[in-house]
Amino acid sequence: MLILTRLLLAIATLFMVSAIVFGAVRFLPGDIAQQLLGQSATPENVAALRNQLGLDTPGYISYFRWLGGIFSGDLGKSIATNRSISDLIGSRLGNTFLLAGFTAVIAIPLGYILGFLGALLRGSAFDRTTNVAGLAVISLPEYFVAYALVVVFAVKLGWFPALSRVSPSMGLVERLDRLILPAMSLGLVIVAYVMRVVKSSILNVLGEDFVQMAQMKGNSRFRVILVHALPNALAPIINVTAINLAYLVVGVVIVETVFVYPGLGQLLVDSVVKRDMPVVQVVCLIFASIYILVNATADILIVITNPRLRHAK
After folding, report:
1. 3-state secondary structure string, the chain?
2. Rounded Cα distance, 194 and 108, in Å
3. Widest CA span in the chain
4. Of the candidates 29, 114, 226, 240, which lies 20 to 30 Å from 78 by C-alpha distance?
5. Chain centroid to CA 84
């Protein structure tokens, strides 16, 4: 029942976000059609564009038409290029998922390992060093980290390309080589967050009676943490993992812009500059859907892994 409630809440949230995304663009101050075409546009051209954007019909009708088109697979057309939005986002969505997946495969396990070791070696030089490094990374803005990596690894050392342009003709190895710097820019923050949450969650559980009983039975600290503490610290760990996985997809905008990586984030920035509002609406909805889906999945996993929630009355 609780899982069904979480699913229904996620669906309701998604509909609410879709309405906000649609309304935020439709109710921008001024005449959007006139702003897009410029002051020299004829009234006929402005009227035609208003009709194309659905601005000459009531807002709720345009919203349900837009939503119906999305459910039927018709995402509309770009104003800037007159191309189908489905074609525009097709390859870019794959590029963004590739970057997010490549980063997640490296950053999430590394964060778990460092957090586990921090709890195991609490108070050691390793623990203090990782704490300071993690705090420093979290405190720095993404664009600063990205540009610093470019200066060090692309300009000074020449190990990786400064720009991450990729094309469908590239092989997987060449693509991954272009992804290293963007993945490092995204992954450093994720490693720091996951490490800190894993460590603090384990340390909180170490104070429980059943964990102290396991210690008094002569189990090593490694076994106590791995077998007894870690399984009971999963809820916050799952939650921070989900948040960071969602961040990987929706937080790529700055990184993709810095490295000129052809993903959804770069498409969103380009569309905002061109005031290509149909594309902006669809990309924002995709980002919101992914974020909501990942967080709903995390909620369900927390329920499944926690017997007290699973059998709640």
Report:
1. CHHHHHHHHHHHHHHHHHHHHHHHHHCCCCCHHHHHHCCCCCHHHHHHHHHHHCCCCCHHHHHHHHHHHHHCCCCCECCCCCCEHHHHHHHHHHHHHHHHHHHHHHHHHHHHHHHHHHHHCCCCHHHHHHHHHHHHHHHCCHHHHHHHHHHHHHHHCCCCCCCCCCCCCCCHHHHHHHHHHHHHHHHHHHHHHHHHHHHHHHHHHCCCHHHHHHHHCCCCHHHHHHHHHHHHHHHHHHHHHHHHHHHHHHCHHHHHHHCCCCCHHHHHHHHHHHCCHHHHHHHHHHHHHHHHHHHHHHHHHHHHHCHHHHCCC
2. 7
3. 85
4. 29
5. 25
For residue 116, what pLDDT is reported?
84
Per residue in 253-264, pLDDT tens? 888 888 888 888
- Please check whether residue 131 is in contact with residue 279, taking contact to mean a CB–CB distance below 8 angstroms: no
**What is the pLDDT confidence band of residue 296, given thresholds at 50, 70 and 90?**
confident
Amino acid at 47: A
How much is the pTM? 0.75
Q: Which two tokens stand for residue 290?
A: 């992914």
